[in-house]
Amino acid sequence: MAYVIEGETGDWELVIGLEVHAQVTSKSKLFSGAATDFGAEPNTQVSLVDAAMPGMLPVINEKCVEQAVRTGLGLKAKINLTSVFARKNYFYADLPQGYQISQFEFPIVGEGEVILDMPDGSTRTVGIERLHLEQDAGKSLHDQHPSKSFIDLNRAGVSLMEIVSKPDMRSPEEAAAYVTKLRSILRYLGTCDGNMAEGSMRCDANVSVRKAGEPYRTRAEIKNVNSIRFLQQAIEYEARRQIDVYEDGGQVVQETRLWDSTKGETRSMRSKEQAHDYRYFPDPDLLPLVLEQAYVDEIKAGLPELPDEKKDRFIKDYGLSTYDAGVLVAEQANADFFEAVARGRDPKLACNWVMGDFAAAQNRLGRTIDDPVVSAADLGGLVDLIADNTISGRIAKEVFELMVDSGKAPAVIVEEKGLKQVTDTGAIEAAIDAVLAANPDKVADYKGGKDKLFGFFVGQVMKSTGGKANPALVNDILKAKLA
Amino acid sequence: MSKLVSLTMAEARKGLAAKDFTAVELVDAHIRQAEAARPLNAFVTETFEAARAQAAASDQRLAKGQAGAMEGLPIGMKDLFCTEGVRTTACSKILDNFVPPYESTVSANLKKAGAVVLGKTALDEFAMGSSNMTSAFGVVENPWKRASDPAARLVPGGSSGGSAAAVAARMVMGATGTDTGGSIRQPAAFCGITGIKPTYGRCSRWGVIAFASSLDQAGPMARTARDCAIMLGAMAGFDPKDSTSAPVPVPNFEAALTGDVRGLKVGIPREYRPEGLSAEIQALWDKGIALLQAAGATPVEISLPHTKYALPTYYIVAPAECSSNLARYDGLRYGRRVEGKSLDEMYAKSRAAGFGAEVRRRILIGTYVLSAGYYDAYYAKAQKVRRLIAEDFTKAFQTVDVILTPTAPSAAFGIGETDDNPVTMWLNDVFTIPTSLAGLPGLSLPGGLSADGLPLGLQLIGRPFDEETVLRVADVMEKAVGFDAVPALVEG
After folding, report:
1. Mind listing the pLDDT tens digit for each residue in B58-77?
2. What is the pLDDT of residues A407-454, one digit of tens each?
């Protein structure tokens, strides 16, 4: 069921490619020893190289190379053993060198793929065109002074991975799923923290529209999209805009457009004619980056289990549904939490609790998985109490809320509150007898064919036992008594 | 004039060790000479006071037996090397107020070896030129005079013209140069001294203001091959701060001066005899060949077929890199700023006010050859030709050990005597540029005087990282030539 936008002239489909700039997790910058911490005082993390002082030279940070290779391997991509740094030349106040050191013709990572987990549980594969390393620019601050712009060079020279997808996405949802999945993989790998709010992951979208079966039409590049929600909005807006242009008899021009999240629109930044001529050429200050296969193999051997593999394992070993497995593995910490709860227990029951009451409580209280409302051990304990019939599933919900409120272990709560399930058949029989005796008319109706009343009797028995009666026993005994 | 200023570094080192004189006396003598020769305009910035203090410190180290390889020897520092706390201008207005908070690796190495820096020597702006006439701080004058016209003021060559003039005029015993297409060798030839551009990667470029990164290389300029060997040993070495610096050990260059060149094969490239080469230069070259033959070496005619493409190749590659390297001079963080109504206007005004005509020309050429649609025709093709030129040398060095050529097509010319066509000026480097493109070591030594009494240079080219052979041959030739002429200024 393909995503289409209905226009006056028929249905339009979307073609989307994404360029994600992911800040490499590293202590120092790509070509200098300056620190990369977020939120430092302006211009306190600037080396002589970052400030482009005369005669300063870049020296590659090996950690960043390792992170790029790691990411490439995580994207099942080709690692190019020889890559070349090139200068991308343009003038701007926050670009001290007058060029950005990037990779152009020969990136460190070639083609790979990302598998999207769609909300309906299906998957789609999006191709990766390339990944290259490059320097970030500084930051221009235009709101500090009425007539001047201030420059903060803390970010100048920080290592970015530009990850370019193929134009394989066909809907805003797929674009969102792509960024979500990419972020998940990067976080698993520990190569980017994926924090879009702090700008450590930024996204440009190339969007075009076409009628079914057509070749690609002209695309526009949308910049400045800093959340997944905005990405979807921006793509939707831009696709609609292009359709309107075509349907009004116009032509879409190749240009760079800026997403304005306040107004919810994209607007032209510069056309192809105004586009910079970046005058790329190999950076003569740096030798080609040559890696040995053994180095790549070593990094590969050290890769963690990635979300796709983990998802497959969860489905296979724990019997989870594709959807549940997909949700659980998105964040490694969530997956770990689940596994801690599920270890040695009924995995489906564990999954229901982690994704059900636990997730709801986490959301309600605004907690992260690093700071869970109940520990994995206690949640596991609760599952144990259900499994060994100490409490019923219904009582368990009550116990869970008490655990969240008090922080006490489930067994303690069950003990203190006397919530232990009644499995004494004599006691249950007595309760049933009392209910039947109090409702002779309903007993008669039931026996006259009103089968539905069985549920009423069960409910009354549970009520009279404070919910503690073992439901299976109640069913069995009740059936026998009404027979 | 004190006799101390006529000493070579090797002689002065002995004298200091024997306590014939002190480093303070040696440095003072050179400061007096530098003061006397001030009209040459060889120094952009003098650091005489600091030099005296350094000399005193050298004397203390000499007394304690802790002398470095260049302890107490007065030198000049080309004003392209960043020097901590000492203004560094690249002879450009755009950096006329720039005082680096750091010291280049090469100048730091020299100071560590005990060398005493008398000041920053002049150069063509950003090392772009072959005459020193593009300096923003006035032209440097060559201490040599034409016999026929002693009143004419001659250029010292460039870009390391201040260094060459200072060494020739005995203001310093040696000086640093940088060579991108001939900037050490051509001024050395014009001023009758010896200078070597080592193999690309031999000396660190860290802290040296960049002109063309894939070509720039620092080297020593002095009055003998031995002094060049001493000084190169102090300057060279792997530097982790320069990714293009070669991780190879620094040999004892002085030990290579065995005086023996017997059995060496000396390549004589036929392409270096272009039509119109002056008879005088031709004769000088032939004399050099004969001297080496007499010393037991064997001249071998070789071919470097792509030589004729070297100049156009260089004038694509070097400006391309320069256009990018000089983008950082934008008036924002340091250097000259001229305010404008917008950022772009500030850039345009600052750079127009800061850069001279030759620098602007090369930035424009470089920007053009890297532009979309022209890159393949110019820059990409030039890189291919550059490889062919390097391969020419690789092939030649399969049969010869060293190559001998003239350094420059003429003797020093007069200030203002050249026409306005920049290409005429660029032709000065026709013999030195191929070596630069190939990254090979090249040395110029005085081969004799022209009929008009001006020094003429001969160039020796060696295999990559084989400066030892180049220096050994230069040392032998130097003794055979017996070049003992001194510039007019020194005589007087």
Report:
1. 999 999 999 999 999 999 99
2. 999 999 998 888 887 778 888 888 899 999 999 998 889 988 888 889
**Per the structure block, which two tokens stand in for B48?**
């005489």
B64 among known catalytic residues: no
C-alpha pair distances (Å), A472 with each of A411, A423, B320: 22, 9, 84
Q: Encode pLDDT of A186-210 as tens digits.
A: 999 999 999 998 999 999 999 999 9
Chain B residues within 8 Å of chain A (Cβ atoms)? 81-82, 88, 90, 95, 98, 100-102, 104, 205-210, 212-214, 240-244, 320-321, 323-324, 326-328, 330, 332-334, 343-344, 347, 367, 370-372, 375, 379
Q: Is B213 a catalytic residue?
A: no
Q: Map out the domains of chain B as residue ranges.
A: 3-263
β-sheet bridge partners, residue B405: B459
In contact, A210 and A216? CB cutoff 8 Å: yes
Cβ contacts of B100 on chain A, cutoff 8 Å: 53-55
Residue with the larger pLDDT of the pair A455 and B143: B143
Give the distance from residue B104's alpha carbon to the nearest chain A alpha carbon, in angstroms: 8
Average pLDDT of chain A is 94
Cis (ω within 30 of 0) for the bond into B159?
yes
Question: What ipTM did this prediction achieve?
Answer: 0.96
Comparing C-alpha atoms, which of B209, B194, B119 is closest to residue B162? B119
Read off the DSSP letter of residue B203.
S
Second CATH level (architecture) for the domain B3-263:
Alpha-Beta Complex (3.90)
Side-chain half-sphere CA neighbours of B10 within 13 A:
12
Q: How far is residue B396's CA from residue A423's CA, in Å, rounded to a whole number?
A: 99
Of the candidates A289, A276, A277, A330, which has an alpha carbon nearest to the alpha carbon of residue A307?
Answer: A330
- Which of B90, B243, B333 shows the shortest C-beta gap to A96? B333
Residue range B421-436: average pLDDT? 86
Q: Cβ of B242 and A58 within 8 Å?
A: no
3-class SS string, chain A = CCCCEEECCEEEEEEEEEEEEEECCCCECCCCCCECCCCCCCCCCCCCCCCCCCCCCCCCCHHHHHHHHHHHHHCCCCECCEECEEEEECCCCCCCCCEEEEECCCCCECCEEEEEECCCCCEEEEEEEEEEEEECCCEEECCCCCCCCEEECCCCCCEEEEEEECCCECCHHHHHHHHHHHHHHHHHHCCCCCCCCCCCEEEEEEEEEECCCCCCCCCEEEEEECCHHHHHHHHHHHHHHHHHHHHCCCCCCCEEEEEECCCCEEEEEEECCCCCCCCCEECCCCCCEECCHHHHHHHHHCCCCCHHHHHHHHHHHHCCCHHHHHHHHCCHHHHHHHHHHHCCCCHHHHHHHHHHHHHHHHHHHCCCCCCCCCCHHHHHHHHHHHHCCCCCHHHHHHHHHHHHHHCCCHHHHHHHHCCCCECCHHHHHHHHHHHHHHCHHHHHHHHCCCCCHHHHHHHHHHHHCCCCECHHHHHHHHHHHHC
Q: Which CATH architecture has domain A425-482?
A: Orthogonal Bundle (1.10)
* Residues linked to residue B178 through DSSP beta bridges, in sequence order: B218
Domain ranges, ordered by start, for chain A: 5-299, 305-417, 425-482
Question: Helices A376-387 and A410-417, interaxial angle, to 10°?
Answer: 50
The residue assigned the tokens 């391969």 is: B391
pLDDT of residue B159: 97
Residues B437-473 as b or e (16 or more Cβ within 10 Å = b): bbbbbbbbbbbbbbeebbbbbbbbbbbbbbbbbbbbb
In this complex, which of A55, A60, A87 lies closest to B209 when CB atoms are compared? A55
